[in-house]
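RESIDUES AND SHAPES:
===
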Amino acid sequence: MNKFFKFCDVFNQLSGLIQMIIWIVLGGTVLSPIVICAFSSEGSFFRELCKEWRLFISDHSFHCWVGLLVIFILFLVNRILHVRGKEAGPPALSTFFHRFNLCIYYQVISRIHLFEHDFEKAIRAKMSNPSHYISIDDESVKEFAGHLFSMIKETIRYITGADVAVHVKVFRKSGGGVVPIEDALLKTYWRIPSDAEKNRSNKTGARRRRSEESFRIQRGDAGRPEKLVENGCSEDENIKYNSAYNYVFRDQLHFWIHNDLKRAEKTKKYASGSEKWKDYYNSLGVFILSPRVLPGSDVQDDKVVGVLVVDSKKSGAFEYEMMRQLMGYFSHRIYAFLRIFGGVPISDNTEECEVII
């Protein structure tokens, strides 16, 4: 199995090289007649260009028509995907072509299968001794959760072809009982950094992204990007805001995907108070961790655990429909994992806190 995965890694790298070669060939096909005509001294440039193209088409008419048909079909599919996820922005061309690499689907399905086995293993271990209370902050639980999150990262990396980071944020609150989401703080439980971030940190000693930031959810108009920028989120500078987190608790879909955050920020569709977020990601997906919520239904505060987040420095990293389905599955599984292990008080610095469940 591991040997096959290594082979698939090599194949993925070769597929990227093949894509580049295809574009070079297509570019050469288009540019060659232009270059020939530019250096030709006979007649006008445009007349010679038309002549060269007529000769080329007459000699390769079948290939030309097939090529144009393929390009049209790919363009049409890409437009359909763009329309379905219009608010998210179109996927990058490399992301779009990556989906035609058949080898990735075996890897994705295999990793989902392995993820399901490990998830069931953790659930069986907990259910075999239900009277033994253990929190999500127990080192053994966090270690296993990190393993599950790493598997999610690898699965997303294969399906998108992009270097991604995955992290889970959970709601923390002081005291007992259930409080409204707006009165709780969303804090990072565990984060799996991107490969680029790890390599940069290992080579240069650069600090990795901060995981200590806290976020407060704001519903209604107050949580919209333009209002967040205008009003901020809190008098406490340590409490940040992120319109994507607000969106999933307000919108009917309860998830948010975007492929160009810098552009979204300029058009007032995204706002974040995180430090230097632009240095780390430009594509973002946020998915609510809760039981299944029907489209158009309100989120029940007492059932929500937090959010599952995936991001990438690459613009256009995510294909909307594929990410919606795949991350939807993972968010349900992570919710179940945290729900089972998160029902008892846990320590948050010097305060006694717990996951809102």
In short: The longest helix spans residues 2-38.
